[in-house]
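R.M. (postdoc): so does anyone remember the format we settled on? I'll just put the C-alpha cells first.
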C-alpha cells in the first residue's frame, strides 16, 4: 500500500514537471519564432493547428503500434469538445488583440473562480475554506506581478468572456470524459487532436489574418523559422499530453493554479535569459503567488487526508453493524434450525 502511494506521488510529480517544463519551453520557442526580433511568425492560431496535427500523428502511431489502446467515445462528444477547445484558442487570441495586456491577464486570472463555480454547478463539487483562501492568494500574487495597464472595450470584453467560459468548460470536460468513459489522458487526446488539427489548419489562417492582417502563404519560411516551428510542435506534444494527465489526475482548478506557477517561471526565466525588466512589484507579486501555491498544495493534501480518514471510519462502523446483524441472523437461524430438528424428532 505504501509502495503504491509513493508510486502515485512520483507519477503526480512527473506529470506536473512535464507540464511546467514543456509549457515554459514552448513559450520560449514561440517567443523566438513569433517576435519581431526573431522570425516574425505571427500566425498563432495556425501554429496551434500544427501542434495538434503533430500530436494526432503521434497518437496514430501509438495506436498502430499497440502502445496505447483505443476506447470508444461518441463522435458528437469529441466534436463538441473540439469546438469548445477551438473557441478557447480563438477567444484568447482575439482577447489579447482587442484588450490591453493588463485586462488580458485579469481575464486569465478570473478562470479559477469561474472553474470553481462551473464545477459546483455541473458536478456539485465543494471546496474547503483553506483551498478558497489559497486560490485568492495565488490570484492576488499573479495579478500584482503581471497586471499593468487595464483598458477594455465592448468587443474585447465579449471575446474575453467567450475565452474564459470556453477554456474553463474545456478543462472540466477533459476530466469528465476521462472518468465517464474510463479512458486514459493520451487516448482521449489522440481522439480529439485530429479534429482540432483539421479545423484549426483550415480556419486558423482566416483567424490569423483578422488578427495580424497578414497571410501565411506570403510568409518566408527560412531554415531557422522551420526549426523553431518543429521544436514548438515537438514540445506541444508533451504539453498537450501533460495537460490531459494533470487534469485527469487532479482537477481543473489545480491545473489553473499550475498555470499561474508557469507564469512565475516564465517571468523569472525571461529575466535570466532575455534581460526582461523585473521590478520590486514583480518580485513581491511572485513571492505572494508562490506562498499561495504552497498553501494550496497543503490545503489539497489536508483535504485528501481528511477524506481518507472519514472513509475507513465509515467502513469500520458499517462492518461492525453488519457483524451485529449477521450474529443476530445466525442466532435466529440457529434457533429455527433447532426448532426444525425438534419437530422432525417428534414426528419420528
Amino acid at each position: 500500500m505504501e509502495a503504491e502511494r509513493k508510486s502515485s506521488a512520483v507519477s503526480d510529480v512527473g506529470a506536473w514537471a512535464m507540464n511546467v517544463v514543456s509549457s515554459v519551453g514552448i513559450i520560449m520557442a514561440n517567443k523566438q519564432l513569433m517576435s519581431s526580433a526573431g522570425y516574425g511568425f505571427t500566425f498563432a492560431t495556425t501554429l496551434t493547428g500544427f501542434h495538434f496535427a503533430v500530436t494526432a500523428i503521434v497518437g496514430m502511431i501509438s495506436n498502430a503500434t499497440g502502445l496505447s489502446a483505443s476506447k470508444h467515445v461518441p463522435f458528437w462528444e469529441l466534436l463538441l469538445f473540439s469546438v469548445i477547445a477551438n473557441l478557447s484558442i480563438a477567444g484568447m487570441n482575439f482577447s489579447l488583440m482587442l484588450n490591453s495586456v493588463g485586462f488580458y491577464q485579469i481575464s486569465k486570472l478570473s478562470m479559477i473562480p469561474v472553474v470553481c463555480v462551473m464545477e459546483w454547478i455541473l458536478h456539485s463539487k465543494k471546496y474547503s475554506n483553506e483551498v478558497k483562501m489559497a486560490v485568492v492568494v495565488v490570484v492576488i500574487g499573479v495579478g500584482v506581478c503581471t497586471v499593468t495597464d487595464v483598458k477594455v472595450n465592448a468587443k474585447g470584453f465579449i471575446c474575453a468572456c467567450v475565452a474564459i467560459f470556453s477554456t474553463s468548460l474545456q478543462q472540466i470536460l477533459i476530466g469528465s470524459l476521462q472518468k465517464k468513459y474510463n479512458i486514459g489522458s493520451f487516448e482521449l487526446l489522440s481522439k480529439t487532436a485530429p479534429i482540432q488539427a483539421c479545423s484549426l489548419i483550415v480556419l486558423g489562417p482566416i483567424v490569423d489574418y483578422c488578427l495580424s492582417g497578414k497571410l501565411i502563404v506570403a510568409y518566408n519560411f527560412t531554415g531557422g523559422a522551420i526549426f523553431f516551428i518543429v521544436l514548438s510542435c515537438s514540445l506541444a506534444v508533451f504539453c498537450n499530453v501533460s495537460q490531459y494527465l494533470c487534469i485527469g489526475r487532479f482537477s481543473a482548478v489545480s491545473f489553473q493554479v499550475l498555470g499561474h506557477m508557469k507564469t512565475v517561471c516564465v517571468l523569472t526565466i525571461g529575466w535570466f535569459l532575455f534581460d526582461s525588466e523585473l521590478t520590486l512589484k514583480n518580485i513581491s507579486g511572485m513571492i505572494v503567488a508562490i506562498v499561495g501555491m504552497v498553501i494550496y498544495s497543503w490545503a489539497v493534501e489536508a483535504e485528501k487526508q481528511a477524506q481518507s480518514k472519514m472513509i475507513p471510519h465509515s467502513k469500520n462502523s458499517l462492518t461492525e453493524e453488519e457483524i451485529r446483524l449477521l450474529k443476530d441472523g445466525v442466532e435466529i437461524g440457529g434457533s429455527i434450525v433447532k426448532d426444525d430438528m425438534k419437530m422432525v424428532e417428534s414426528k419420528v
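R.M.: ...and that's the designed sequence above, right after the C-alpha cells. Also worth knowing: Residues 119 and 327 are 44 Å apart (CA to CA). The radius of gyration is 26 Å.
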